[in-house]
Amino acid sequence: MVTAATVFRDYEADGIPSSDPHKPKKSEIRQLLAGYEAIINAFTSNGGLIFTLKASLDLVLDHPAATMAWVIGDPVTANNGIYQKLGASGTGSWTRRADLPYSFIVASNVGAGTPNAIQATTSIPVSESALVWMNIFEANTGSPVTVSFNEGAPMTIKTNSGTNIAIGGFVAGMIVMGIVQGATFRLLNDQTSTAIVAAAEDAADRAEAAASAINYVTSYGAVDLTGAVSAQTVIEAAVAWSYANDAPLFWPAGTYLTTASIPNFHDVRHEGPGVVKRGSDLWHITPPDDATINHVYAAASGGSAANDGLTASQPIETFQHAIEALEKWAPLDKGQWQIDLLAGTHARGRFPDEGLPSSFPIIVAGPPVSITAGAAFKLSITGRSGSFSVGETITFSTSGATATLTFVDNTHNVLFATLASGTPVVGQTITGATSGATATMDYQSPTPLAKVKEGDTQSAVGILGFYTSLKVRDVEIEDYNGSTSSNGVRVDNSRELFLENVHLTDCYHGASVFNHAKLDVKGGFAYDNGYLNSTTGGGYAYRGVFHAKFELGTQNGPTTAAGPAVKGNSGAVRAQELSTGHLDWSIVTDNDAGIRLLVGSRLNVDGSVFLRNAASAMYGTQGSHVDVTDNTVFGTGADANGRNWSAGSASTASAAFIDSINVGNAANPGVIKNTFPALTINSTGNTAIDTFTVSREALNDTQFTGIAAKKLTARITGTLNGTTGTFKRLILRAGGTLAGGTPTLISFAQTATGAFEAELSIFFKGPNSQRVMARGHHPTSAPVTGANISESTSGDMVISLEGLVNNAADSLVIESVEWIQTGF
Asked: CA gyration radius for the chain?
């Protein structure tokens, strides 16, 4: 009986290349197939049996002699085949008569091995009697190349002429065919047989499509695969059939030119390497690499539900419809996917609650913007003199650029403008042509042309991705402030949110991330956020909750020109429940409050500018910490914050600000100064011991009144000598040194001598209001006194410690002074 190995041998004399290639004879092929037919007929006519394992077949002997059986799934390749029963029913054995009559076997190579040691799998075991069809996952980098089927022994791959595969001979995406010959896998073609390879690839595409019941797009007419001639009619017909029959549509390699929207394009499952071209836009059915981006365009108005959104001229009807279109292509595990919001105002977009799986964040982008003539932009200003007015022209010093003001908020030092001419430069002075007002522009950002907004005080989230990573670029999000859960944009659950030139305006929370998610902000403008229904404060421009991570601004700057600017908000940044990250080289000015850290959160601050924040520039409580570098700028004078640093329970700062001293944990008592004067006082007039100055900013920080008190304490130790005079006295004077201000004193008794300790404290209750307590500790004298005083808090306050005796024969020896703060 002839076999496949002899009929399809490589050479006329098997194994001898010099005998010329062998061409199979039709008579031999008919004989081979007739043998298969005879075996199949005998099998079916005798009540044939099918077994997965040879061991299972051997256990079944209750069949008469000549019964036929197949073994089709034994992991030992040699055990698979056609068997015949020997001996009467109940006795005898099974003997192998022939290979299984498969004409070819499809092998799958998904890259489990290496480029030079391929590992492939098949649904049935390979054998020497069947043709094996295999794809190449990646180009080989060495020679020889081996292949292992179903984790079997590696076989060396040989070309038709018996040579090893050359380096680079296999190319990713190739289809090869061959047969098993002992320890080699012999290809049917040589590497140079490009025509055969091309035919095999085309046949493989068709075989794969047929095997998966996939509709083949080129079955509906001739297609110019170079993309030069429109294939609109063919594509529409192919998509329509797949849509009607719920069948996948396969696109062979090539470029398919279309001239209009394709009905139901996103409602069909697509496969294959083809590319749809319309105008300059390309849609890759299967993106070939990470850099490839598929775009869906969404209209602000004038779109249509019938459009496929593959070009800006045929946009999908809404932002939400664009999201739903991408959802139908999931999982988006190759390339990048972008929703392009066209210029105008869009309704909100909500990504699926279960997430839209993708290898990269889904991009939501408006048209690119820059600050050029005719473009709108927003300005942060500082050092303002006078008040700007809407409609006036401003001129930039040095550059000579001019712009027209379209919105003015002098209170928060924010201007909106349209550039008329020139190039504005950060750091230059601007002058109003009508008002005469002047200021320095410290930041500018181009206003996005695409806006997500649905009217005032919306109780919703503008862009929501619970389990979806997002990159939002050149988009403004406005007026989502109808409830305390309203947000401009929000991402949760270990996903990432990247914002690039995103303008967050009048949202209760501008951008929020929850549950191990990350917020990364570059550029943009956060203005007027944090107000419920645009009136009641409490929200923040940027917020992270439950192990969130921040990357706000640009690490290592080295300037604030790259932004973002966070201005005129109820709060700038809120980090809570073990959230952490950076706020670098950003502008945080003119807010009700700056940074707020809660419940074990931490923020590193470098190079950022904090000016005119009404309460504290930074506040931490419940075990939080802020790490501030020397590059960070805190305003002074008219630009001063209410406080630079305030702390609640168990919270710390690497650099805090009570008279520029690092106070560490400011919520609990913290020692800020120790001196050891060894000073002997025997004068009957006041003698200075030590002084301390509390800054005006520290005195007037009143936002966080929940702190029990702000208090400064001087703890003094020393010795009392002599009993001639009637007292030995210590004084705490608020608001002066040796004279002026308000003194509060304690006097030790005439008979008290030896070591003593005294504690003199001043509580700062509010503007122009203090309470002083003084207590002495001595075995025979423990004087106590207290008084309410009203020293002015409009400027810095000097706290002076002084001493005197009633008789110069006596003395006070001051050994140590320890200053302790609480609540600053």
From this structure: 41
Q: Give per-residue pLDDT as tens, 741-770.
A: 899 999 999 999 999 999 999 998 888 889
pLDDT of residue 211: 46
Which distant-in-sequence residues (6+ apart) come within 8 Å of 160 by Cβ? 10, 21, 186, 187, 188, 189, 190, 193
Longest CA–CA span in the chain (Å) reads: 140
> What is the Cβ-side half-sphere exposure of residue 795, based on CA atoms within 13 angstroms?
4
Residues, the chain, total?
824
**Per-residue pLDDT reduced to its tens digit, 224-248:** 999 999 999 999 999 999 999 999 9
CB 449 within 8 A of CB 507: no
Statement: the pTM of the whole predicted model exceeds 0.85: no
If pLDDT is split at 50, 70 and 90, which confidence band does 119 have? very high
**Rounded to an integer, what distance in angstroms lies between the CA atom of residue 221 and that of residue 785?**
103
Q: Whole-angstrom Cα distance, residue 663 to residue 433? A: 47
End-to-end CA distance of the chain: 100
| Res 661 pLDDT > 50 | no
At residue 315, does pLDDT exceed 80? yes
DSSP character string of 414-431: EEEEEEEES---TT-EEE
Lowest mean pLDDT among 253-267, 603-617, 652-666, 698-712: 652-666
Q: Which residue has the tokens 């947000």?
A: 487
Confidence of residue 313 (pLDDT cuts 50, 70, 90): very high
* CA–CA distances in Å: residue 713 to residues 99, 658, 761, 771: 98, 14, 4, 12
Partners of residue 727 on adjacent β-strands:
749
Contacts 24+ apart (CB under 8 A), 60-68: 61/85, 61/87, 61/89, 61/90, 61/91, 61/92, 61/93, 62/89, 62/90, 63/89, 64/88, 64/89, 65/92, 68/39, 68/42, 68/43, 68/97
User: Which residue's entry shows tokens 């047969």?
Assistant: 179
Residue of 130, 161, 184, 196 whose CA lies nearest to 22 = 161
The predicted pLDDT at position 702 comes to 47
Question: Which has the higher per-residue pLDDT, 75 or 476?
Answer: 476
Strands 402-409 and 393-396: antiparallel
Count of Cβ atoms closer than 10 Å to residue 64 Cβ: 13
Contacts of 714 (CB under 8 A, 6+ apart): 690, 692, 732, 759, 760, 761, 799, 801, 817, 818, 819, 820
* pLDDT at res. 748: 96
Cβ-Cβ contacts under 8 Å for 176 (sequence gap 6 or more): 133, 134, 135, 136, 170, 187, 189, 197, 200
Are 467 and 350 contacting, i.e. CB atoms less than 8 angstroms apart?
A: no
Starting at the earlier edge strand, list the strands of the sheet with 215-216.
215-216, 249-250, 270-271
Give the contacts of 452 (CB within 8 A, at least 6 positions apart): 319, 341, 345, 346, 347, 348, 349, 462, 463, 475, 476, 477, 478, 488
Lowest-confidence range among 39-53, 433-447, 505-519, 655-669?
Answer: 655-669
State yes or no: pLDDT of 292 exceeds 60: yes
Q: Which residue has the tokens 């292992």?
A: 148
- Start-end of H helices in 146-217: 194-211
Q: Are 497 and 472 in contact (CB under 8 A)?
A: yes
Is-cis flag, bond preceding 677, omega within 30? no
Closest to 778 in 3D by CA, of 714, 721, 711, 713: 721
CA distance 574 to 537: 13
**Structure tokens given for 730:** 């210590």
Contact (CB, 8 A) for 732 and 759: no
Going by the DSSP 8-state scheme, the letter that residue 36 receives in this structure is H
Angle (CA) 535-538-540 rounded to 5° is 105
Q: How far is CA 365 from the centre of its chain?
A: 15
